[in-house]
Amino acid sequence: MSGHVGDLSPKQQQALQQFREVCKDLLNNDDDDYYCLRWLRARNFDIQQAKEMMKKSIAWRKANNVDDFAKDDYKPPEFVHRTLIGGMYGVDRQGGPVWIYPFGNFQIKPFLRGCTIKEILTYMAWRCEQGMKKMREQSKKLGKVVETQVVIFDFDNFSMLQALTAEAVSAVSAFIRMYEANYPERLHQAFVINVPSLFSVLFNLIKPLLTGNTLTKVHVLGKGDNWKEEILKYVDADQLPKQWGGNCVDEITGDPFCSTHITVARPITEADYRRRSSVLLNGDQGGSAAATVSVDRRSCHEVPVTVTLAGSRLCWEYETEDHDIGFAVVRAQDDPAAEDVTVLSWQREDSHLKPREGSILCEEPGTYVLKFDNSFSAYRSKKLTYTVRVVPPTISEREDEA
């Protein structure tokens, strides 16, 4: 049996019931059998493994404010939004969205110079959430559950050597881990087309990160492999740009890539890189005035912030002048002898290349400490400029918690 709704063996049906029972504290009211079965299929109906996978994903969504994407609270970094290829166009024959990533002429090194892997992952998570949103819309429109999508990766006119650098492989691997861990069983089919001979090297590096179920849905096709015919088995021509075997052209530009919807590669110039400026550091967001300090070598600058209301959001932005710095957020305990609670794990940030900003939801009142860590630097002090603000919960949010 496939393990989908309506096609369950007695053993799978029992596993579903047990999964619902052991996960009752994690599941929301609208988490239906389709939702539960995606986690179970991803772990071959091992109930405990599926529960652990879902639990980690819920924590990931919370830590990265992923649910805020649905509220249009996320504003993509301008550089990433303008230059990262790809987009959603049309639907497949099951009603799911179709994503197309045209790698032709895409320059990885200049792109990675203008952003961080974390920014890329956040933006790709936002795209994933856009896909989920489209599935919900299609489910309502078609009167059936739509839960998968088609993805096309086109490597025509792409230099594969640049994808084999350590940084590029790291970025690709990080995305695959994120997708597999948090969007299980969402892939209908993936087409990797116009692949050059070196693609096998990259594929062998990332293949261990893909589940067996995912690998069965991946079609790797060269230039002479009739890939258009293969794609058209799953996507009708009136839902597909002309460049990839369909009948559609862009309604504004008339181009066969439908580039109003799908970002295509273009040369990245110095003018494209993010300017070292920010609204918060200019003091236009109602936060505290920007402070500038020198963080000595082998030292850590701590900024304690008092949060009086549960549900408040602690926001920050910072930049360094010439070199990177470590950053973390902890919550101090009432007992001075107790260890601080890590709220945001330590990470080394290239804040000298562009300002860093972020926020956390403070579930408990107390003293939160922003840690700007230069302890790893044996020789250099760092000039740091930062601003912090606390946004209290809205009245309605307070009433919801009461």
Automatic annotation (TrEMBL):
GOLD domain residues: 276-390
Any one annotated GO CC term: cytoplasm
Transmembrane annotation, as ranges: none
InterPro entries reported for this sequence: CRAL-TRIO_dom, CRAL-TRIO_dom_sf, CRAL/TRIO_N_dom, CRAL/TRIO_N_dom_sf, GOLD_dom, GOLD_dom_sf, SEC14/CRAL-TRIO_domain
Record-linked Pfam families: CRAL_TRIO, CRAL_TRIO_N
Entry-linked PROSITE patterns: CRAL_TRIO (PS50191), GOLD (PS50866)
Ranges where the CRAL-TRIO domain occurs: 76-252
Family annotation (PANTHER family): SEC14 RELATED PROTEIN, SEC14-LIKE PROTEIN 2
Record-given protein name: Retinal binding protein
